[in-house]
Amino acid sequence: MHAVSDPVSFDDTAVAFAHRSDADLNRAYRIYQLINNRPLTWLGTRLTPWAIQAGLPVKGLLRSTLFRLFCGGETLQECEEVIHRLSRFGVYTILDYGVEAKQREDEFDRTTDSILDAIRFAAPLSHVPFVSIKITGICRFALLEKRHAGVALSPEEQQEWQRVNDRLLRICMAAQQHRIGVMVDAEESWIQDPIDELADQMMQRFNRSSAVVLNTFQLYRHDRLAFLRRSFEAAQQGGYVLGAKLVRGAYMEKERRRAARLGYASPIQPDKAACDRDFDEAIRFCLHRLSAVFLCVASHNEKSNLLATQLARQLRYPADHPHLWFSQLFGMSDNITFNLTHAGFRAAKYLPYGPVAEVVPYLMRRAQENTSVAGMSSRELLLLRRERQRRKKSDRHAAVS
Ligand SMILES: Cc1cc2nc3c(=O)[nH]c(=O)nc-3n(C[C@H](O)[C@H](O)[C@H](O)COP(=O)(O)OP(=O)(O)OC[C@H]3O[C@@H](n4cnc5c(N)ncnc54)[C@H](O)[C@@H]3O)c2cc1C
Question: Among 214, 215, 218, 248, which is best to mutate for testing ligand 1, by the most ligand atoms less than 8 A from CB?
Fold first, then answer.
């Protein structure tokens, strides 16, 4: 049992980047400098998907830059080095098979097999407690859309839906057998109801004593705090543990654009403050019920992570309570992940992997969210710069003394 040290600080760059050699730190710094260039990122995120599709030789460049910074490798075996490096510092890994937006049944079956491979791969590794899954990786988007809209499915579509259920069931059964958790990602609001339905069914079946399955709650939606409360009530009544991964949400612009185009009220909160308020309230809600909720705070927001650590302390939970997890994306917010781990909490990196060409959409999202805001350096760039300066100073100090 690890007592919560207080206050947790996310400022210690020596802890944050101890896993990076000087060469590795400098490489990350140079890549973030490129991403920070707004016009370059604007152009790159538009041209790269096109160049990949056109078969232009850009994969090598992508592999040595964004892919290397944000992904574990093309295969599970290639991820092993990263997993071991993180585990040496006590950081866990969540395997995220990064292939997105498939259309055909054979592709859905292949994704299912890849996730099953990931579960078997993770089983003997003490520092890989979860895999993640996007339901759009095992189900046609249009089918989810139709089910969400409450449109009756044809007999063929009903069979198709049954096959989706079967795929997820196989994944959860394997996960339970190998003692691995499954995090079901949240996606666009117009396909989310059937994703919630699937996650709820699996939680009901597999979360009897602790959580095998976690659903994801996007607090940038104004209706999700109420949905979290309803999900908790349903879990209480159904006698199962609620698995709750809390995120703010990744599709804000797309959501707003669609709502405006089709003329319905946007599901997104009116402003960032409202989103932050609900996210933090969701943390409080879950932490106050930790014996019945398995919580993963999935955020790069320092205030929200700090709130969770402070409340955990007030409620006298051990930092390594088995129902309390934190997670950040690989290549981002190492200051949060590594300092949380240093303070005794369970923190994990979401580690995407897969063929370079397939993870392009993911890489483009990461590049966009890390570019400069109004000419300012991104937070990642500032942290890397501080650590480079700190190392230079301590080298000079060592040379003098
Ligand atoms: C481990 C992990 C797993 C994730 N899984 C998912 C997932 O399954 N599904 C998913 O959708 N996302 C997922 N995300 C991404 C996440 O939703 C956020 O996009 C991202 O983490 C940024 O939010 P933040 O809490 O880190 O921090 P912050 O930087 O504090 O918040 C930025 C976020 O706030 C919200 N926001 C910004 N401006 C406004 C505004 N004006 N009004 C309302 N809201 C606003 C947006 O969601 C934006 O992304 C995941 C993130 C992590 C770290």
Answer: 248
